[in-house]
Design a protein that fits this description.
Blueprint lengths: L11 E4 L4 H11 L3 E4 L12 H13 L4 E4 L6 E4 L6 E6 L6 H11 L7 E7 L10 H13 L8 E6 L8 E7 L9 E2 L5 E11 L4 H14 L6 E8 L9 E10 L4 E7 L8 H17 L9 H10 L4 E6 L4 H14 L4 E4 L6 E6 L6 H5 L1
Parallel strand pairs: 1-2, 5-6, 9-14, 10-11
Antiparallel strand pairs: 2-4, 3-4, 6-8, 7-8, 10-12, 12-13, 14-16, 15-16
Length: about 375
Amino acid sequence: MTTQAGPSRDILRFSTHRHLRQRILLSILSGKSIRIDGIRSDDVQVGLRDYEINLLRLAEKITNGSTIEISVTGTSFLFHPGLLPGGSYTHTCHIGRSLGYYLELLIPLAPFCKKPFDINLYGVTGEEGRDMTVDMIRTVTLPHLHLFGVTDGLELQIKKRGSAPLGGGQVIFKCPVVRTLKTIQFLEKGKIKKIRGVAYSTRVSPQFANRMVESARSILNRYIPDIYLITDVYKGDDSGKSPGYGLTLVSQSTTSTLHSSETLSVAGQTQTPEEIALHAARLLLEEISKGGCVDSKHQWLVALLMALGKEDVGKVRMGNLTPHTVQFFRDMLMFFGTKYKLVENSTTGEVDVSCIGIGYSNVNKSMA
């Protein structure tokens, strides 16, 4: 890890609020300071949103020695990253974004702390169409870390559910520390062997969860027999402050490739549990059809961990690259100088992504 940036030439400059999280993440991992300008400067309501300021405060809380300078209008800020001590934290997230928004920053940082990391997060456990729900993070994101050797003690516990808009949910994320990450070669996607899922509801009839399971099965049973969908009904204080329901689906292949989809109810819109379940099932089939060994929502995460691995060539087969992933490749070049080699299969549209690991060593842990 490099030392904190000194003169102004060491500060990487970006504009607009897009990709804010990944730049804060890469700043902390690389030790390079960033300055982001022009944040919603053309909007009626200019500057950083409350949930983005909350995210910066979280980054400040989990690091030692970080400094953040936000301009008066909120349209620019300067971030000098600190070190990652690890340990236990508690943070109340802004209800403008779900907990997945904050966890996407924490999960890649946690393995590189000095001590094992655990945090209590409070807020909205899932919101349709914006961030991954805590269910998807638990069943899909964390298994992706297993590929790189982050296994024992890695868990996400859902203590309370809290649907949008008022939240009231609570999760506990725990992560062990590693010295270095494994190099991966993941080019065989295999055949789908099973589908798992969780239908959950808060402050609505428990029958909603059962109806979602039946509807999802009406589509998925045509393809494979090994389908197991559980219902997760929360009552009383554990069900948060708003009514809501949703379905998260995960398919697993013979080579442990995971593809996922999810659909949630939206406050103020009348969607039946059947509509939500059918939509989630179709989204899962669409995700599987894109191919690759990595779910489209996790391309950036696998690309990051692959680049941080040992000084060896890592290879992964991905489906069509998302615009977010392409921008992530560009940012990795700026922060770490990492170049990815992309080889596209013209018939399937899949892309073989390879890079040489930078041998990123957890300097925090070695000092312990």
